[in-house]
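Title: Prediction job returns without error message
Component: structure pipeline
Severity: low
Priority: P3
Assignee: unassigned

Description:
Job completed but the reporter wants confirmation the result is attached to the right record. Sequence as submitted:
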Amino acid sequence: MDGLTACRRIRTLPGGEALPIVALTANALAEERERCLAAGMDGYLTKPLEPEVLYAELCRRLRLPTDATATAQPAPGTVIGARALPGFDAANVLRWLD
């Protein structure tokens, strides 16, 4: 199943309309972005993916309260300038991107 179909199906599930869905694709053409948004996706990221861009998109789409995104001391291997984001393992994301 492709991402567009998956998004459409998720949106039909109970509570599916409230889930943030962000496309991640190597296709940077404007037409592809429009197709993703028309399918019901909330955002669109292209590869190569930068950890800071992913982190910023997650923060925006999850609409975290200000206190949940307070600046934290960066640990080794974390995204520079990353704030605390529950469930976001920056070191694992960096390993995945490498």
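Comment from assignee: result matches the submitted record. The CA atoms of residues 5 and 39 lie 8 Å apart.
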